[in-house]
Automatic annotation (TrEMBL):
It holds the Pfam family RsfS. It comes from Pseudobacteriovorax antillogorgiicola. Its main location: cytoplasm. Keywords: Cytoplasm, Repressor, Translation regulation. InterPro entries: Iojap/RsfS/C7orf30, NT_sf. One of its GO terms (molecular function) is ribosomal large subunit binding. It is found in: Cytoplasm. NCBIfam families: rsfS_iojap_ybeB. GO terms for cellular component: cytoplasm. Interacts with ribosomal protein uL14 (rplN). PANTHER family: IOJAP SUPERFAMILY ORTHOLOG, MITOCHONDRIAL ASSEMBLY OF RIBOSOMAL LARGE SUBUNIT PROTEIN 1. This is Ribosomal silencing factor RsfS. Functions as a ribosomal silencing factor. Interacts with ribosomal protein uL14 (rplN), blocking formation of intersubunit bridge B8. Prevents association of the 30S and 50S ribosomal subunits and the formation of functional ribosomes, thus repressing translation.
Length: 115
């Protein structure tokens, strides 16, 4: 199992909870923070929390991988899940639009779940 497999598994788990605007960016050779960044949106704090829980459970069950840290789950506005070389951001729509985090690496290659 490699970091790309983890990023794709995160994407699948997020889609299972109807995450919108899912983006997986390949940040290898662009960032010292992580290899892949997964960004998705939700329409409510309950949905962001459900997406986060789905990701945690799916990766634990299917890949035996646990996050290093999770921040923001209580409020559900912006949840950050740290899997080491894969970072996940689950945003409320308006918070995501404000920070436009994926625009920091707008030239990064995108990963498609079908690949």
């Amino acid at each position: 199992m490699n970091n790309l497999d983890i990023a794709k598994a995160i994407g699948k788990a997020a889609q299972d909870k109807k995450a919108s605007r899912l983006v997986i960016q390949d940040l290898r050779n662009r960032s010292d923070i992580c290899d892949y960044q997964v960004v998705c949106s939700a329409s409510s704090d309950r949905q962001t929390q459900a997406i986060c829980s789905s990701i945690e459970e799916y990766l634990k069950k299917n890949l035996q991988v646990r996050p290093i840290a999770i921040e923001g789950k209580q409020t559900g506005h912006w949840i950050l899940i740290d899997y080491g070389s894969v970072i996940v951001h689950v945003f409320l729509e308006e918070i995501r639009d404000y920070y436009a985090l994926e625009d920091l690496w707008s030239d990064a290659d995108l990963v498609h779940l079908e690949d």
